[in-house]
Task: structure prediction
Amino acid sequence: MSFVERYQDGIASSLASGTNVFFWHPFYACSVFQRSQALNPSTQLKFLADKRNIYRGLSASILLLPWYPLMDSASTSLYKTIEKNIQRPLSERERFVASFAAGAFSAVAATPHAVAVIASQKSNNQRGALRSLLHVYKEAGVKGIYRGLVPTMVSSGLYYSCLLTSTPFIKKEVVTRIPGEGKTHEIACMLLAAALPATFFVTCTIPLDWIAVAKQNDPSGKVCKSARQALSMAYSKNGKGFWRIGLISNIFASIVDMAGYNFLKEFYLEKGHPFLEEGSIKNDG
Result:
């Protein structure tokens, strides 16, 4: 069996995540920026006041890319292991739970990623994401770069469940109900399929996101010391409408990521790519 045959799913996942990051990152950066600024009303700035904000923290997002194929492979392996033990195929609900368990582990990378993006934005573009993360590490140590780990674990678990399980499943249902052919139809179906799990994910994780962002805005832990205090800060500075801040951009980031990743992965697997063509990588035996 060649290297390509053995790892084509992982290669396709890597290519898909690598292409898609340039589409979802601006929405994600906007969402984080809006919530971060909402916790610091005295320094209110507009996201587009500096066009560099659009891709601020992109280097951190690029470093996060290996987790997509890793979580995809981990979920698949988990499915197979469980199915072997219970001797029956897993239901979609059981797959969702299994993906949640695998996805929660991605918080190991997702938490420093969020800390890096926020710290970079707070530096007023004086430091890039990686330099900002190093700056946080020097000031607050490992504890600083893992502020907000627990809410991020829950959020990441739910996110990867929606990304790897719900979106592909809903897409199959959408395709059977909406007749059509061609790439435009396929993209439209994938966007519709991603809209429901993305909206569900963002709505369910609003409190978790605020807790994580409040803690990651304060790596030293001098101001925000607990989850309750984080939500209290968001409410006291923004009123009852605090939950709407960053909501739309976060939904768009999730839709673009879920739809784009699954569409591009299917595209690379079905239509081929130089890296996925037989003979492009020598047979490893």
In short: The mean pLDDT is 81. DSSP finds eleven helices and no strands in the chain.
